[in-house]
Amino acid sequence: MASRSKHNLSRVISGFKARLQHAFAVQAESQALSFDDLALLERVADAVVKRDMAAPATVFLESVGPMNFLGSQALHFLTPILDLACNTSEIEQVARLLERRDTIPRLIVLIEAKSAPRGLSAR
Fold first, then answer.
1. For the whole prediction, is pTM greater than 0.70?
2. Is 59 within a domain?
3. Interatomic CA distance for residues 111 and 94, integer angstroms
4. 121 located within any domain
């Protein structure tokens, strides 16, 4: 009887391990960003650089980068309220972009590229 319960327990544990192995797996982004998504990221980067907020925006984005999926879910939840002040399609587009793990690093690269000095004319 004891060997039978040990066998059942080991089978349950191995099944649990197999299911848990994929619970926190991160899949690589297989789809490239669309032209509209890239245009939105460019507009955001332009607005940040135009307001001379490149350094604070970069620090902020790097600090909240691991929580981008949580932010996308909050946007999906708040869409009916935000619809009063913003365009619903853009809110959904931003939420969709935040679901991807490569969006925040790409936005940081865009901001840094646009805020980089164009030459050594300051000297």
1. no
2. yes
3. 17
4. no
